[in-house]
Amino acid sequence: MKKFRFILPLLAAVVLTIAFAQCTKDTKCKAVIKVYYSETGIDTGQVAANVQVEIGTNSNFAQFAQATGTTDNNGVFEHTFDYEAVLPVIASITKPDGRMYYGSTQIALKPGETVEQPLLIMPR
Protein backbone atom coordinates (compact mmCIF):
# COMPACT_ATOMS: atom_id res chain seq x y z
CA MET A 1 0.00 0.00 0.00
CA LYS A 2 2.85 2.42 0.76
CA LYS A 3 4.30 1.74 -2.69
CA PHE A 4 1.09 2.96 -4.33
CA ARG A 5 1.19 6.21 -2.34
CA PHE A 6 4.58 6.91 -3.87
CA ILE A 7 4.00 5.53 -7.37
CA LEU A 8 0.59 7.11 -8.02
CA PRO A 9 1.71 10.79 -7.69
CA LEU A 10 4.88 10.00 -9.63
CA LEU A 11 2.88 8.38 -12.41
CA ALA A 12 0.47 11.35 -12.52
CA ALA A 13 3.41 13.79 -12.74
CA VAL A 14 4.94 11.83 -15.63
CA VAL A 15 1.63 11.70 -17.52
CA LEU A 16 1.06 15.45 -17.07
CA THR A 17 4.61 16.26 -18.14
CA ILE A 18 4.26 14.23 -21.32
CA ALA A 19 0.84 15.69 -22.08
CA PHE A 20 1.98 19.30 -21.78
CA ALA A 21 5.36 18.73 -23.46
CA GLN A 22 3.59 17.67 -26.65
CA CYS A 23 1.86 21.04 -27.12
CA THR A 24 3.42 23.06 -29.91
CA LYS A 25 2.19 26.38 -31.19
CA ASP A 26 1.52 26.94 -34.85
CA THR A 27 4.10 29.47 -36.01
CA LYS A 28 3.02 29.61 -39.64
CA CYS A 29 1.83 33.02 -40.84
CA LYS A 30 -0.80 33.21 -43.56
CA ALA A 31 -1.02 36.33 -45.70
CA VAL A 32 -4.22 37.10 -47.61
CA ILE A 33 -4.00 40.03 -50.02
CA LYS A 34 -7.32 41.32 -51.40
CA VAL A 35 -6.79 43.53 -54.45
CA TYR A 36 -9.36 46.09 -55.65
CA TYR A 37 -9.47 48.53 -58.57
CA SER A 38 -9.72 52.25 -57.88
CA GLU A 39 -9.70 55.23 -60.22
CA THR A 40 -9.58 57.94 -57.54
CA GLY A 41 -8.11 56.28 -54.45
CA ILE A 42 -11.55 55.47 -53.07
CA ASP A 43 -12.38 51.79 -52.65
CA THR A 44 -15.06 50.88 -55.18
CA GLY A 45 -15.21 47.23 -54.12
CA GLN A 46 -14.42 46.10 -57.67
CA VAL A 47 -12.18 43.05 -57.27
CA ALA A 48 -9.06 42.81 -59.41
CA ALA A 49 -8.61 39.34 -60.87
CA ASN A 50 -5.36 38.07 -62.45
CA VAL A 51 -3.21 40.79 -60.87
CA GLN A 52 0.49 40.08 -60.31
CA VAL A 53 1.28 40.24 -56.56
CA GLU A 54 4.80 40.35 -55.09
CA ILE A 55 5.54 40.11 -51.38
CA GLY A 56 9.03 40.90 -50.06
CA THR A 57 10.67 40.47 -53.44
CA ASN A 58 13.42 43.05 -53.15
CA SER A 59 16.96 41.98 -52.27
CA ASN A 60 16.62 42.93 -48.58
CA PHE A 61 14.55 39.84 -47.80
CA ALA A 62 15.57 36.18 -47.58
CA GLN A 63 14.08 33.68 -50.02
CA PHE A 64 11.70 32.26 -47.37
CA ALA A 65 10.20 35.75 -46.88
CA GLN A 66 9.30 36.19 -50.55
CA ALA A 67 6.25 35.22 -52.56
CA THR A 68 4.86 35.98 -56.02
CA GLY A 69 1.70 34.98 -57.78
CA THR A 70 -1.57 36.20 -59.23
CA THR A 71 -4.92 36.92 -57.67
CA ASP A 72 -7.81 34.55 -58.26
CA ASN A 73 -11.21 35.51 -59.71
CA ASN A 74 -12.14 37.05 -56.34
CA GLY A 75 -9.08 39.32 -56.32
CA VAL A 76 -7.39 37.28 -53.56
CA PHE A 77 -3.77 36.11 -53.31
CA GLU A 78 -2.77 33.83 -50.41
CA HIS A 79 0.60 32.58 -49.20
CA THR A 80 1.82 30.95 -45.98
CA PHE A 81 5.13 32.05 -44.49
CA ASP A 82 7.22 30.21 -41.89
CA TYR A 83 8.10 33.27 -39.81
CA GLU A 84 6.53 36.54 -38.71
CA ALA A 85 7.68 39.68 -40.48
CA VAL A 86 6.64 43.05 -41.86
CA LEU A 87 6.86 42.81 -45.64
CA PRO A 88 6.19 45.13 -48.57
CA VAL A 89 3.45 44.13 -51.02
CA ILE A 90 3.25 45.29 -54.65
CA ALA A 91 0.42 44.56 -57.08
CA SER A 92 0.29 45.45 -60.77
CA ILE A 93 -1.52 44.62 -63.99
CA THR A 94 -1.53 45.93 -67.54
CA LYS A 95 -5.00 45.86 -69.07
CA PRO A 96 -5.57 44.88 -72.75
CA ASP A 97 -6.15 48.56 -73.59
CA GLY A 98 -2.60 49.34 -72.36
CA ARG A 99 -3.54 51.00 -69.07
CA MET A 100 -1.35 49.93 -66.16
CA TYR A 101 -2.69 49.67 -62.61
CA TYR A 102 -0.31 49.66 -59.65
CA GLY A 103 -0.52 49.68 -55.86
CA SER A 104 1.60 48.91 -52.81
CA THR A 105 1.22 48.40 -49.07
CA GLN A 106 2.81 46.50 -46.18
CA ILE A 107 1.63 43.44 -44.33
CA ALA A 108 2.55 42.54 -40.73
CA LEU A 109 2.56 38.75 -40.39
CA LYS A 110 1.75 37.26 -36.98
CA PRO A 111 2.57 33.70 -35.87
CA GLY A 112 -0.35 31.32 -35.98
CA GLU A 113 -2.67 33.92 -37.51
CA THR A 114 -4.18 34.77 -40.89
CA VAL A 115 -3.63 38.43 -41.74
CA GLU A 116 -5.85 39.99 -44.41
CA GLN A 117 -4.60 43.13 -46.15
CA PRO A 118 -6.67 45.08 -48.70
CA LEU A 119 -4.76 46.72 -51.54
CA LEU A 120 -6.06 49.34 -53.97
CA ILE A 121 -4.52 49.52 -57.42
CA MET A 122 -4.82 52.74 -59.38
CA PRO A 123 -3.92 53.79 -62.94
CA ARG A 124 -0.35 54.90 -63.44
Strands, helices and their partners?
Blueprint: H1 2-21, E1 29-37, E2 52-55, E3 67-70, E4 76-81, E5 86-94, E6 100-108, E7 114-123
Parallel strand pairs: 1-7
Antiparallel strand pairs: 1-4, 2-3, 2-5, 5-6, 6-7
Quick rundown:
With 124 residues, the chain is of the alpha+beta class. It is 16% helix and 41% strand. The protein has one domain: Sandwich (Immunoglobulin-like).
Brief descriptors of the model:
single chain, 124 residues, alpha+beta, Immunoglobulin-like, seven-stranded mixed sheet, 1 helix, 7 strands, 41% strand, elongated
Describe this structure in words.
The protein has one helix spanning 2-21, and strands at 29-37, 52-55, 67-70, 76-81, 86-94, 100-108, 114-123. The protein has 124 residues and is of the alpha+beta class. A hairpin with a 5-residue loop joins strand 5 and strand 6 (100-108). It has one domain: Immunoglobulin-like (Sandwich). It has one helix and seven strands; from the N terminus they run H-E-E-E-E-E-E-E. A seven-stranded mixed beta sheet has the order 3-2-5-6-7-1-4, with no helix packed on it.
